[in-house]
Every structure is written in C-alpha cells, then in structure tokens.
Amino acid sequence: MKDQRDQNIPYKIYLNENEMPKAWYNVRADMKKKPAPLLNPQTLEPMKFEELRPVFCDELIKQELDDTTAYFEIPQEIRDFYKMFRPSPLIRAYCLEEKLQTPAKIYYKFEGNNTSGSHKLNSAIAQAYYAKKQGLKGITTETGAGQWGTALSMASAYLGLDCQVYMVKCSYEQKPFRREVMRTYGAKVTPSPSDKTEVGRKILQEHPGTSGSLGCAISEAVEAATNQEGYRYVLGSVLNQVLLHQSIIGLECKVALDKYGIKPDMIIGCAGGGSNLGGLISPFLGEMLRGEADYELIAVEPASCPSLTRGKYAYDYCDTGKVCPLSKMYTLGSNFIPSSSHSGGLRYHGMNSVLSEAYDQGLMKAVSVEQTRVFEAAQEFAKVEGILPAPESSHAIRVAIDEALKCKETGEEKTILFGLTGTGYFDMMAYGKFNDGEMSDYIPTDEELEKSFATLPKIEK
Amino acid sequence: MKDQRDQNIPYKIYLNENEMPKAWYNVRADMKKKPAPLLNPQTLEPMKFEELRPVFCDELIKQELDDTTAYFEIPQEIRDFYKMFRPSPLIRAYCLEEKLQTPAKIYYKFEGNNTSGSHKLNSAIAQAYYAKKQGLKGITTETGAGQWGTALSMASAYLGLDCQVYMVKCSYEQKPFRREVMRTYGAKVTPSPSDKTEVGRKILQEHPGTSGSLGCAISEAVEAATNQEGYRYVLGSVLNQVLLHQSIIGLECKVALDKYGIKPDMIIGCAGGGSNLGGLISPFLGEMLRGEADYELIAVEPASCPSLTRGKYAYDYCDTGKVCPLSKMYTLGSNFIPSSSHSGGLRYHGMNSVLSEAYDQGLMKAVSVEQTRVFEAAQEFAKVEGILPAPESSHAIRVAIDEALKCKETGEEKTILFGLTGTGYFDMMAYGKFNDGEMSDYIPTDEELEKSFATLPKIEK
C-alpha cells in the first residue's frame, strides 16, 4: 500500500488541449555543427529537393532538408487529430519508486494510449496529411514491429488515403494480429521480402528463407511508391522530418514539467532509428545547444543491434536495396540483420543523423542492454505501474530502473525522465517466451560486425 | 478534414484527480422496490452474511447485502490505484458525428486505457483490496473474454495476492495472448472446464468436448476457493458489489457532464452480466428514482445471448454447477451456452438483479443486435475515432450510431452518451474473421430457449 506521495504532483499530469504545442521544434536549427546532408548515391552530392520528389511528398522534403527553421507550425487538421490521443500523460512513477525504495524521482511520458500502441501516430498523421494535401492517392511504407504500419493505417483511414505496408516477414509471422489491426483500418499488408517488387525478388533469390529486415522492407516500399502513379513513400523513423514531428513528445513534456517546476537531471529513451528518443530529447537538447541548461541524455539500444555503442559513424545506405539516399550515421552496415532470437523492434542498422551527430559531439550517451534484463524490467514495471510496456520501451525502463537503483546506493535524489513509447499488447509471444524461461540473449561478435562494416560504401565526408 | 467543433467542449474531458469521486454510489438505496435478495439454494431463504463467508470476502458481502446505504467511501489505497488509469476521459465523438452527418451530439466514456483493456479494473482492485485487508493468501475467479481475469491479475500483482483464474476454454484457446498477459502479472490460468475440480470433472464427463461457459467456470472457481485455506472467490460482473464499484464510471461522467453543462437524453451501454452498464447508469438511474431527471436508458445485448430481450425474470442458478446462491434475474437458464459462432464476451446467461429489476419496472429499455452489424460499427468507429473497440463495447457503438442516424432523419439534436468499455487488441481473431467476410450471426430459436428455460428452478418469489 502506497502513501508517500508528493501532494503537489499528481500521478498523471495531463495538459489541457489549449496548452498543447502549436509548432514542432527542429533541433537542427540550434546545432552549430549540423548533421551531414543526405547524399545522392550516384553523384555523392547532397540530395536536392527535385531529386527527392519522385519518392517523398513535397512538404515533407522541405522539412527534411531544412536545418535552419526552428519551428514549423502544426496545421490545424493535424492538431485536431492529435486531440484524439494527445496530450499524452506525463506520469510520476510513484509506485515504481516505492517498489525500488529509491530517493530518485521518476517520471515517464506515456505515448501508448492509442490504438497504434505507440508514439508513431505523431508522425503518421503528419505524413499522411501532407500526402493528402498534395492530392496523392496513397502511400507506401515498411513496418518492423508493426507500430508504424498500424499508425499509418489509422492516419490513412482517417484521411481516406490508400495505404500499402511492407511488413518485415518475421514480424508478420510473429504478430498476425498486428496485420489484422492494419487490415481493419483498410491497409494492404505484404510480408517482406516479397515477390511483388524487383528488389524483393532479388533479395529472395540471394537469401532464400530470409526473415527480412527493415532495410529490405524499405527498399520494397520505395520501389512500390515510385512504380505507382499518385503514390509516395513515407518512413516512420530515421528521417529528420520524423524527429521534427516527434518533437511534440518533448515539447509537451517541457510544458508539463515547467508547469510543476520540475527539472529532470537525466532523460532516457530507447533508440532504434531514433524517432522516439529524438522527439523526446529535442527541446532539451535545444536548451543544451543554446547554453540554457544541461541534461544527461541517454540512448538505450538492444545489445543485439548496437548501432550507437558499437557502430561506425559513416555514410551508409539506409536500405538493403540501396535505392535510398546515403545518410551519415552510426551504423552497423546496411546488411546487418539482428539475431532471430531478438524480440520486438529497435532492429534498424543505423541511427537518425541528428542523434548520430549529437552522440558524436558528446551531447548524448548511449548504453546497450540485453533482452532478458529488458523483459525483467518490463515485468517489474507492469506489476507496479499497471502498464504492460512494449519490449522497445522496456529498454528505457531497464536503464531508468538501473539509474534509480544507483541513486539508492548513493542517496542522490535525481529526477529521471524516460520515454514510455508504447504498450506490449501485440508482443505477447515474446512475453510468453520470457514467462516460459525460454528467452535468450545474443550479442553479435566483433567478427560479425566487421563483416557487416565491410559493406559500408567508401565515402570520405 | 474536420472543423465544425464546439469550441467550449474539448475533444476529451479529463477531470483533475481532485475532482474524482471519493465514494461509490449504491443505487439500490434509492429504489423503492428493491431487487430480490439472493437465496440459499438449500433453504430458499435469503442468504445471510454468515452463509456467504466461506466463499466471499467479509467486506464485500456487506456491500453485496446492503440495499440502504447510498454511498460507500472509496478507501484511499483504492483511490491511489485508480489514479493509474482514472479519471478516464469522457470523449466527444466529433469525428463520428461528422462522418454520420448527424445533428446528434455523441459522447462516450472510454474505460479502455489500461492494460486490462476495460472497465473491469475498477472492481478488481476493490475486491483484491478487501481480500488483502482480510489477510487472505489469494483469490480465485473465472474469466470469459479475459478482461476480468487480466484486471484481477493486475490488482493481485500490485497487492501481492495469489490469483487463480479459470478461463472459459474457448476464450483460452481463441485468446492465447490474454493468458500470457495474466501470466506476466503472475496469475495461474486454467482452461475451464478442467479436471482440477470436482464440478469440472463432472461437466467434462457429461459434456465431453464442451468449449465451456462462464457459468461453469464460476462453479470451478468457487470450488477452488472453498477448498483452499486463505482463499476466497471473487466475481467480475453480475453481483451488486460490482455495480457499486463500477458506479465510478457513471459518477465521473456526471461530474464531467455537469462541469460543461451537458445533459444526455439517452445513455447506452452493452450488457453481459451488467457490470459496465450498471456502473455507467447508476447515478442517472438514481436521479430518475428520486424524480430529479429523466433519461432514456438502453441496454444492448448480443442477439446470440439475449437475456433481457428474450429471457425470463425468475430465480435462477448463477452457475452451471449450482454451487452459488440463487438470484432473481432476467435469465436464459443456467445451462444456456451461446453459439460457438459468437465472438467476444457478453455471454452470461443472466443479468445483474438491479438491472433486471430496473428493466422490469420499465426504467430501462433493452435491444439486441447481431454481431456482423456490431463489427461493422466497430470498424466505422475505429476509422474515425481512432480507437479499436472491444467487440463487447461495440454493441453500444452500434446502437449509438443507429440512434444518431435516426436523429439525422428526424433532425433531432439528441445528446447521446454511451459506454466504451474497452479495446479490442486481444480480439483480433474475431476482427480477422470479420475482415475475411467469414463472420456469421446466430440467433437462438424459441425451441432452444424453451429447452433452456425448462432447467429453471421452480421458485415462486
């Protein structure tokens, strides 16, 4: 039974709808040393607006390439959609603190209270909106764990756009119910690699029986977009436009924290392609860049897919089929596929370029964690906080708990903020494995990584 | 794109934590003609406190038998737990209204934003709390669709109680992931009927290959509770104590509606055992009973399990094994098992006695709907409101949409409130059937019902 609660701070801080941010924040505008530009894989010159037009929506390309405009107004239609599931609550983890007996104060921003089950909907509606505004018929995309595909299906259904999703085959098979959610929203879902695209057929020929990868699904979705009149490709992570849209997470956090006079010492987020982490930390990183405040920023990645902690900072292909622009990022090589024992998402081989640059500049730390410890944290959290977290989000929970336990040893009263990106309702096969004691950890060997690094393009920029 | 919104009414109305009700409301206190008492199946006399003690927790029996106390204070510990997922939002269905082009104003109270996925957690924590307070080791229960079992697992994990769940076999098989959620929260889940109990073995012998029923799972859970030292049985619906705890739904609604000066004309809820509907309408029914206001109250049940619309108002067994007290209720007979084509919950043969009495007194209406029309409504709702609803909740959505469309014809600007009890994330097999066009409807024939009515005990009270 809990009773030691701060009477001034509610369990859940909900902003009013009129307190919601009206503009997204583009942290690149405050970076002195900007992230490296996307390169054209043929010319190795920075990608231009016109070159990206066959693949991406016009307005989104502008957002992607703009590293000087600090704020982009959120169109009213998107703000109205946001009201379906935003503002999301900032929750004080009173019960977890009590359970851990830590002097740390733990907060988490919970993005899972919507049918997509994660923060992905923040960018999905923005991307679908601009596609609709451009008069397109439909959009194509890839999805790994399935949250992004679900989010995009929801946004597309709302706006009456056709939505075609290439779903990484192992997720397609492990998560049949995700597929049904997308279908309920009217999306067409194809397991990737498929024989629907040239790149898919090529990959299937070279790697028969492959369980797929995000990089490969991206290639297929891009090809599908360029081959259909009135279609464009959209992506749920990695890109700067996604970080821009996801900044709504951090901006809401900031308003809520300021309202109650709370200043976090440490901000923790899980990192796959970087969409949630980048969105969460953007406004805080902005303060650091402007010299207004200091925070300890921590990216948490799976030990089985350690792009920041063990990757190289280099230009690399964003996709297996090498049809996308080159991006400078921390990467494991575009051929890297995490071990099949790895459950859940966070399986992309690279990292968003803003986060890569911030990490390279020492503005952000990174740690990697093994999945059995992640599921232990998930279960502990679920039992006391009542929310069954997504495996991805549980990476951040693991490190938040570890940091809170360090505070218990040192007696420090640190304020920890972490991002709880989503719920694990469609990850019960992985939980089942964990419940049955059949979950294993896999850490790629140095040799495996070296082999993968060998595929990096030789570009000195 | 939507723009016709009432600027004075937010999309979601969230109460502040300090506006949350501090007491549950017992509508029986305001009923002149009280619901009939539970009867001892041996003596046919009203059940006494002492007789119920071997099965139920002391405090809960007091609440069950008390039909005069109007308000029961909610213990602080339960209110603290409620803060994890309450206050729940009262949502204005702007997007649905726009889609339907109806002059009706539609509101729904959304109880699905918690890991149990439904309103069941409201009573689960209360029942677990009183069990813990009594110093018990654990509790046993049954679950059908699985929400109740999940909710009780969560509450038990939070309080450190052992939790044993008998899950109706067809749900156990159709919803393996529900079982994993319960196991993640540490519960022991057994498909029912099982060979773990005498009554289970008897049912298996008489009906080999049966897919189980709630009535049968109840019998097993009761037997398991009485056979173990320090255990009691708890139930997620049907009982008056459950309606008491669930009154938090209606009470929060009332506060939120009053805050914005909204008066509903019509209140709609799905009805299985009656827990959600009873909780939602209790305070409004109370106003009607006290002559302070008038509302149109509508219970919606599946056409495949029509206890109010086609049942008899009579004393009946609450469970198949006939180990529980007799209750006077609208019932299809305790042997009634809905067709296996029926998806989702709302499959109990009877109805809570307060609701049965209110229905009998003409204070509440009832309609039944077929499941394909229910899933059509669910899909339409999901696409515009962004929430994928539980099949159970979708019964209320169906009728809310039907009523809103009637308003479109007549031009009436009715204010409709309905209960959105939960999410359908664990019902994707049923959605898949619907997506594949393979869902069928089944309405029991008069002959089938007559056969089932023949099993009613002959009691003239």
Summary tags:
41% helix, 461 residues, alpha/beta, Rossmann fold, 15 strands, four-stranded parallel β-sheet, globular, seven-stranded mixed β-sheet, homodimer, 2 domains
CATH fold-level label of the largest domain in chain A: Rossmann fold
Gyration radius from CA atoms of chain A, angstroms: 21 Å
Instruction: Give the N-to-C terminal Cα separation of chain A.
Output: 58 Å
Multimerization state: homodimer
SSE-based structural type of chain A: alpha/beta
The main pleated sheet of chain A reads as: 7 strands, mixed
The count of DSSP E runs of length 2 or more, i.e. the number of strands of chain A, is 15
CATH top level of the largest domain in chain A is Alpha Beta
User: Largest inter-chain interface?
Assistant: A-B, 51 and 51 residues
Characterization of the model:
2 copies of one chain form a homodimer. Chain A has 461 residues and is an alpha/beta fold. Chain A has 2 domains: 12-21 and 86-117 and 246-453, Rossmann fold; 23-28 and 38-74 and 120-233, Rossmann fold (3-Layer(aba) Sandwich). In chain A, 41% of the residues lie in helices and 16% in strands. Chain A is built from 18 helices and 15 strands. In chain A, a hairpin with an 8-residue loop joins strand 12 and strand 13 (326-331). In chain A, helix 15 packs across helix 16. The model of chain A has no long low-confidence stretch (mean pLDDT 95). At the A-B interface, helix 3, helix 6, helix 8, helix 15 and helix 17 of A face helix 3, helix 6, helix 8, helix 15 and helix 17 of B.
